[in-house]
Amino acid sequence: MTSNARTFIDYLSGFDQDLQLKLVNSFMPDGNISSDEANQIKFLSGFSHQDQVQMIDNSSFANFDWDGDGMCNYFEQAVNHSPYDVYNGRYALLIDTATPADLPLEQSDADCMYNFLVVNEKVPSQNVIKLTGPFATITNFKSAVLNLSEKVSKNDFVYIALSGHGNFDDFGFNDGNGNCREQTQE
After folding, report:
1. What is the DSSP letter of 157?
2. Same domain, 95 and 75
3. What does pTM read for this prediction?
4. Tens-level pLDDT at each residue, the chain (186 residues)
5. CA distance 18 to 24
6. Has residue 184 been placed in a domain?
7. Of the candidates 46, 79, 112, which is a domain's last residue?
8. Is 140 among the domain residues?
9. How far is CA 110 from CA 100, 101, 151, in A?
10. Distance from C-alpha of 113 to C-alpha of 11, rounded to nearest angstrom
11. What's the structural domain count of the chain?
12. Cβ atoms of residues 170 and 181 within 8 Å
């Protein structure tokens, strides 16, 4: 028996048959319990028994993302230690100092990261700033950080990725002419 199945069986034992049936029909229509479902059960277990019964009765137990921000309740509470019922915005600043001439047949690292974040992770495209090639300057980077700082709140996530050239203790931003020479130190 998998640990997910054990978690689910242990959880079921605390409820009457009607509620057990509702849980089984919701969480195990295919006979399996996924990691996401097991995590939702762990999340629900943190509430009082009376609250859990009410959640099962009104079917809110099956909503893995109560605040609608694209992150599951369990992740927000147990992993990120943030409120599960407060919307967490997601933002990204992607810097890639490579010029288009450097990658004639491929997408840049920033393009790949953008696609992953927007398509797979459902980060709203308007929340992603992408600076590539001659636009990946230290001046534009600072401006983008300032822009983000005016938008985000303490519950939001900001992902910053730097791709390009540099050393252990500095990063070579683009100089605006396609050269990666501008250093971070000013």
Report:
1. E
2. no
3. 0.72
4. 788 888 899 999 999 999 999 999 998 888 889 999 999 999 999 999 999 999 999 999 999 999 998 889 999 999 888 889 999 999 999 999 876 655 555 677 888 899 999 998 889 999 999 998 889 999 999 999 999 999 998 889 999 999 887 677 778 888 887 777 655 554
5. 10
6. no
7. 79
8. yes
9. 12, 15, 21
10. 39
11. 2
12. no
